[in-house]
Queue: 2 jobs
Job 1
Amino acid sequence: MSRADTPFTQSRTFRLSWPVIVAIAAVGVGMLLSGVLPGYFVFLAISAVIAAIAILGLGIVTGSAGMIALCQLTFAAVGAWIVSLLNIMHAPGGFILWLIVGGIGAGLVGIIVGLPALRLRGVNLAVVTLGFAAAADVTLVQIQFPGSADGIAVERPAMFANDRQFFLLSVIVLVACCLIVYFLQRGRWGSGWKAVAFSERGTAASGQSVQTAKLTAFAVSAALGGISGGLLAGQVQLPFASSFTPLQSLALYVLAIMSGAHLIDMAVLGGVLWVLVPELLKRWGVPQDWAFVVFGVLGVQALTGGSNLGQVIRNLIWRRADRRTPAAELTPLPPDADQDAAPVTTTTVATAHQVLLSGEPVLQVQGLTVQFGALKALDDVSLEVPAGSIMGLIGPNGAGKSTFVDAISGFLLGHGGRVVLDGHDLGAASPTRRARLGLRRTFQQDRVPPLLTVGAYVRFVARRRLAASDVEEVLRFLGCPPARTRLAGVDVGTRRLVEVAAHVLARPRLLILDEPAAGLSHEEHLALGARLRELPQRFGLALIIIEHDLDLVRSVCPSLTVLDFGRVLASGPQTEVLANPDVVKAYMGETELLK
Ligand code: ADP
Ligand code: MG
C-alpha cells in the first residue's frame, strides 16, 4: 500500500480541508454583513473583529501556554504605531503590507517582553507585563502616533476605502489569523504551548525547549496584537494613545480568560462581547466604564469556578458528541499477556541477564552525589547500564530513587559525579538536550498535558516523523487508548502508559520509568510487566524501572540496584540481590521479599 492510500493521509486531507471551508464561509458571512448591517453597527462590527484578533493572541499566551500577559494592547499600539509611521513615510506596499510589518514588529517586541517569562511566573510575570504596559502608555502619550499631530490620516487600501469595505477587509484578516492559529495550534508549536502550560519539566523531558515554547507563544500572541492595532489604525485613521491603555489590556485579558480564548471560536465570541457589553450598557443608561466591572466579575467567576464560557459551551457539544461516538476504551492487551506476565523462572531471567550484560554500557554513572541542605539524598552512587538491558531500581520510600532520575536526566544541577551516555560525558547538559541525545524519563507525578489528544502528545514527545500505523501499534502494544482520544478524559494510570508509549516512540537509547505502574490495578501491573519486558528487543532501548511492586520487578528486571538512604546497598543479578542479607534487612516488614 502506498503512503497515499493509508487511512492516515486521507484523514489528514479531511482535516486540512474543513477549516478552509469554514474560513470561506466566514468570509461569505462577512460579505453579507458588510452589505446589510446598518451604518452605525458597521463601525462597531469592525471594533469587534479587531478585538477578536487581539483576544485570539491572548488565547495563545494565556489560554494555551498558561502565562499571564497584561500588555496585549501595548503590542496593538506597536502595530498601530508602525502602520502610522509607514503611512506618513508613504512606504511602498500600502496598508496591507504595513499591517503585516506591524505584526512582525509587535512580534519582535513580544519576544523581548517574553524574556522575563523565562524566569518569572504567575503574579510576578503579571506585574512585569503590566509595568511594561504602563511605561509604554506614558511614552505613547508623550511621543504620540506618527502623523497625529499634523492630522495625517492612515490611508486605507483603495478597494477597502469606506467603512463597509474596511469591515470586509477586517473579516478577511481575522479569518486569515484564525487559520494561521488553527494550524499552529495543531503543530509542534501548539503542542509545546499546551505542554509548557501544564509542566515545564515534562516539556523539557520531551526534548522540547521550554524557552522556545514560551517565546514562540509570546511572539505569535504579540504579532496578533500588532495586527489588531494596525487594523485599528486603519479603522480610526488617527490613532490615539487612549485606545491602548493598561486598563483596557487588563480588561481584555479578563475577557480572554472568561471566554476561553484558546479556542478560536471563543476568541471571536470574546471580540463580540468586548463591543456588545459596553454598547448594551450605553443603551440601558449605564456608564460604559461599567463594562470593566462586568468583565471583572465574569473573569473572577471563570478563575475561581475553573470553567469559562468556552468550556461550558464546548462541554455541551462534547457531551452530545460522546453520545454519538462510543467513548474511547482502553484497548485490552491480547489474552496471552497475563500468561506472559506470570513470574518468570529464575533461569530464564538469569540467561537473559547473561546475554544482556555483554552489551556495551549505554549509561555510566560515577560517584553521583546530591545534597539537599543537610540531607545527602544521593551518596556516591555508581552504576552501569548495558545497552538493551533492563535494570530495576528499588529501595524504600525516600531512598533517593527519584532524585537519581532527576540528577541523570539533568533536572538537578550542581550534583557531584559524572553521568556518561553512550561514551559522552553529559556534563551540565540541559534536560532538553539530554532528551534529544536519547536519555528519556517519565515522572512519578502526572506530567501529561490534558489539553492534547493522545496522538498529538505522542508525536510531540517523540520528535520524529511517525506513520499513523507506528503510533497505533505502540499505543496498542502498551494498552493505551487510540490516538484521537482527548487526554483530559483519560485516567491518571492510563496517562502514565501514554507517557511511556510516547517516549518509546522517541526511540531513545535509555528510558527511565519512575513508577510506571502507579495507578494501575494488579492485573494491569502484570500485563504491563509483560510489555515492558519486550521493549528492549522491540525498540532497541535500555530500561531503568523504578517500581514498588516486587512482583513486577521480579518478572521484568534481570538485574537490580537497591538504594537505601542515598547509597547503593546492592547491585547485580536479581537472584543475588534479593538474597542479599542487607537487602532483606532494609526491606524488613516487606515480608513478600522473604518468600
Ligand atoms: P524516592 O523516590 O526513593 O522515594 P526521593 O528521591 O524522592 O526518594 O527522595 C530522597 C530524599 O530526598 C527524601 O528524603 C526526600 O525528602 C529528599 N528530597 C527529595 N527532593 C528534595 C528537594 N527538592 N529538596 C529537599 N529534599 C528533597
Ligand atoms: Mg520517588
Job 2
Amino acid sequence: MRRPFVAGNWKLNLDLSAGRALVAGVAEKLPASLPIDVAVCPTSIYLFPMAKAISGTPIKLGGQNCWHESKGAFTGEVSAAMVKEAGCTYVILGHSERRHTIGPKDADGRIHAETDEMIAAKVRAAMSACLVPIVCIGETLEERDAGHTNEVLRRQINGSLAGVEAASGDSLVIAYEPVWAIGTGRTATPEQAQDAHQYIAALLMERFGSDVAGDIRIQYGGSVKPSNVVELMKCPDVDGALVGGASLKVDDFVGIIEGTIRAKGLD
Ligand code: PEP
C-alpha cells in the first residue's frame, strides 16, 4: 500500500504566531512517529521560521508555489531551490486558485491564469530542486455537468506533467481537487472520488508505466473534514488528502490525520 499523505494548504491564512501555535498544537496531539506522511504548507514568507517550528515533530513542510526559472528578473517570485532551502519537502503546484482564481480578473476571467504548460515547467523545476511537487488537477462544475470530467483530467495530467521524468513514484504527488468542492463545503462522494482517482491512476500508468505509477500517491482535496474523511479514505485509490479550511484548526486537522490512519487500517 502507498503511504497515505495528508497536507494542509494554509493559503493566505495564519500569521506567524498562529502558524507556530497550530503546529505545536497538532504535534502535541500526535505520536512522535506516524504511519502516514503529514505536511503543512504556509505562505512562502513564513517557510524558514515554520521549518524551525516543525523541527522535532513528524510534520513536514511544503510551499504553496514556486517559479519555473532558477534566477533572473522575476520580481516577487521564489525559485524551487529557495523553497527547498527554506526546509520544504513538498511544493503545491497548479492549485485551482492559481489556474483560475478570484479577484480582479483578465478578459478570460482569470488572475494568475496558470496554464498546464507553465505548471509543467514548475513541476520540472521543483523536481530538479529535489522537491516533491503536489500537482493539483480537477474539473469545474460546468465541466462535470457537461460530462467532461475525464477529458479535463486527461488534459491536465498530460499537460501539467509534460516533459516530466519520474524515476520513482515517491518523487511526485497528484491532488485530485474538483474545483466545485474547494472551499464550498460540498464534498465529492466517495464514489465520485474513487472514480476520478481510478481514472487518474490509469492515466499515470500510461504516462509512467506501472512500476513508477503504482507508487505515485493521489490525494483527494475539496472540503475534507473529520466527519467525511474516513469514508473518502476508505476508497482504495485515495491515498490521502489535501486540506484547506480544516487544516487551520488543530482539532480538525488532527481529526483528519487520525481518520486517515483509521480508514487505512494503520492504527
Ligand atoms: C484546497 O484549497 O486545496 C482545499 C482542498 O480547500 P478546502 O479543504 O477548504 O476545500
